[in-house]
Each structure stands twice: as C-alpha cells, then as structure tokens.
C-alpha cells in the first residue's frame, strides 16, 4: 500500500451522487405527492431512499481509510491525527446543531432538535476514526460483529414497534420532546438519528473503513464478494430483525453496507479503471457545502414564505393539469438539485472547496 493519501475519482463520484440523492429526496415540491421510491419506508422495509444515508456513512468510512490511515502510515503522530479527527467531528456536529437552530428560529418549530444527519455523521466519524487509529483490521471486524449482535440483543426484548422500542424509550427518557417525532398524549418520542441507534450506524462506517482498505490494496473482488454476502445475510437476518431505517436495525446495516460495497465496486471499475466520467464528482468534493447550503436555502425559502409561490407558479400551476400532481413535485426536486449542481460546478471551477 502507498503511505501517501490516495484519492479515487470513483469515491468522489459516489459521494457526490449520494449527496445529490439526499437533496432530491429532501426537497420535493409537494410532500403530499411524491413517488413511492422517493419516500422512506413507513416503518419496516427498505425503499431506494432508505439507501441514501447509509451509503453516505459507508463512504465516510471509505474516506477514513483513504485519508486518515495513509497519514498514520506516513509517520504522522497518532496524537495529531486523533486531535484532527475529533476537531473535524466536532465541527460537523456543530454545523448540524446550527442548521437545526436555524430551522427552529425560521420555521417556528415547537422545540429544538439536537439529533440529526450531520450530528450522526460527526459522531460516527469520531468513533470510527479513533477505531481506525487504535484497532487492527481483525479487531475492527470483531467490533462490527459485536455492535450488530449487541444492538440486536438490546432491542429484541422490547420489540420493534414505533415509540415502544428500546431506542425510542432511551431517547424519550433523555431528550423528551426534543425529538423528530413526539406524541404529547403518550409522552413518547422517536428519532431516526437518536442515541442508541447510532451504535449500528458506527458499524456501517466501519464496513466502509474495511472496504476502503481493500480498495487501496486493489482487492476489489473481496469488496464485491463481501457485498453479496452481506446483502444475503441482511435479508436472512430481516426475518427475525426487520429491515428498518428509523431504528437502523442490524439487518438494515448489514444489507445496506452490502449494497454500498457493490456500488463502490461498480463505480471503481467504471470510473477508475475504464475511464468513465466521474458523474457526481463536483457534489462529492463539496459535499458538506452542498448539503448545508441546500438546507439553509430550503429553510430561508420556507421561512420567508417564498417556497409555496415558487412551486405553484413555476411548476404546479401549469404542470398539474397536464401531468398530474406528482410530476411537478419531482420536477421541482430535480430543478433544486440542478441549481446546486451549478453552484458546486462553479465552486469546483474556481477551486473553492469547503473543508470541515
């Protein structure tokens, strides 16, 4: 292996396509009229949308293998790398909290929500980064197994229904109404990025860490074979521990990691080996800028009352009579992604990269 940091265009492309998918599913013109594949499963089950976040966390692990570990191999002091990992994680969490504060202030939400996508990314990055620096590959694999089996053991006695599962009980006890969903009648809450479900999410990042190490070593067959095995294992496990994104069940973590491994192999062979264009790369090299900027834009449009008129006049007003209500809703989301593609393209042209 090379001791120098390695950059694969395929990884940037896959990260970018994942961010673009995040923007697409987060910004329909009308939440009442969205095509089913662009919605999360109501509870158990997996839709294409349910693959987006685990793909991003998986790529976080790949990036640790490609960015952090080569610096350690090059002789950078472990204390320096630990400090860098924790500082970056803290900045990502702070960005997530700032976004939720902005949403709370602009959208008149009943309470501030401490958990969220960026908060989970930051926490998982911190834990996985430290694991990468302190544990050997075999110990990392053992820890993945322990996290997934341990989470199953914790969750099973309480069942997997909304609000009454153990993850929801823990979040309700610790954070009360500051959750994504809150039932004021029963005084119970549920959060898809809550505390306990972060444990199997760390395993998702560690799957990416191992895949990134194999990618550096040129062991793409190992990545592909492991991906197929994980998909089959996840489907089999789902018979007793259902696939569930909101709970980040162990079966879901295994299944989605398998899907991400196959996607990584395909991207690597097409982009890095066969020279296909790295579609999505511009989103990938400015992933945080695109995600945060898009969220701020959405909150501002909603808070200023401009989102509804923009959608109605630009899309729904003339599209709905011709194509029905779902087409303009999707068209708005695609236009939103396209607008941000223009932004990240210009940033890339000027070599402006937001590093967190």
Q: Into which percentage range does the β-strand content fall?
A: under 5%
User: pLDDT average, as an integer?
Assistant: 96
Anisotropy-based shape: globular
- Distance from N terminus to C terminus (CA atoms, Å) equals 27 Å
* Assembly state: single chain
Cα-atom Rg, whole angstroms?
Answer: 20 Å
The count of β-strands is 2
Work out the count of structural domains: 1
Helix/strand class: mainly alpha
Figure out the total of helices: 13
The major beta sheet can be summarized as: 2 strands, antiparallel
Strand order of the largest sheet: 1-2
Helix-strand sequence = HHHHHHEEHHHHHHH
Percent helix, as a range, is 55-70%
Structural write-up:
With 356 residues, the protein is mostly helical. The protein has one domain. The chain has a two-stranded antiparallel sheet with strand order 1-2. α1 runs parallel beside α11, α2 packs across α7 and α3 runs antiparallel to α4. The radius of gyration is 20 Å and the shape is globular.
Briefly say what this structure is.
The chain has helices at 9-26, 52-73, 78-106, 117-134, 137-155, 166-175, 198-216, 220-237, 250-273, 281-285, 287-303, 307-323, 326-349, and strands spanning 181-183, 188-190.
């Amino acid at each position: 292996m090379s001791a120098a940091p390695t950059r694969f265009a395929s990884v940037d492309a896959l990260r970018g396509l994942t961010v673009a998918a995040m923007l697409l599913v987060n910004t329909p013109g009308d939440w009442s009229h969205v095509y089913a594949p662009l919605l999360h499963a109501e509870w158990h089950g997996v839709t294409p949308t349910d693959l987006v976040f685990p793909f991003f966390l998986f790529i976080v692990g790949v990036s640790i293998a490609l960015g952090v570990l080569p610096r350690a191999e090059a002789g950078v002091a472990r204390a320096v790398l630990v400090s860098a990992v924790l500082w970056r994680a803290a900045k990502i969490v702070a960005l997530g909290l700032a976004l939720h504060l902005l949403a709370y202030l602009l959208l008149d939400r009943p309470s501030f929500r401490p958990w969220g996508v960026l908060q989970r990314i930051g926490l998982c990055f911190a834990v996985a980064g430290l694991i990468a620096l302190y544990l050997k590959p075999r110990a990392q694999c053992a820890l993945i197994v322990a996290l997934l089996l341990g989470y199953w053991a914790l969750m099973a006695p309480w069942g997997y229904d909304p609000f009454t599962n153990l993850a929801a009980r823990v979040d309700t006890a610790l954070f009360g109404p500051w959750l994504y969903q809150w039932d004021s009648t029963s005084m119970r809450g549920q959060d898809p990025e809550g505390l306990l479900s972060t444990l199997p999410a760390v395993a998702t990042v560690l799957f990416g860490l191992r895949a990134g190490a194999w990618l550096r070593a040129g062991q793409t067959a190992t990545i592909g074979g492991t991906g197929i095995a994980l998909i089959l294992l996840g489907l089999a496990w789902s018979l007793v521990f259902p696939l569930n994104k909101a709970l980040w069940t162990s079966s879901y973590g295994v299944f989605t990691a398998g899907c991400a491994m196959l996607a990584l192999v395909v991207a690597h062979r097409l982009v890095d080996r066969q020279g296909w264009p790295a579609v999505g790369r511009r989103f990938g090299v400015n992933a945080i800028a695109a995600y945060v900027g898009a969220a701020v834009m959405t909150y501002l449009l909603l808070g200023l009352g401009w989102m509804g008129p923009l959608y109605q006049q630009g899309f729904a007003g003339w599209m709905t009579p011709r194509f029905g209500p779902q087409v303009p809703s999707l068209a708005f989301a695609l236009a939103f992604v396209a607008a941000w593609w223009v932004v990240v393209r210009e940033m890339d042209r000027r070599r402006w990269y937001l590093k967190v």
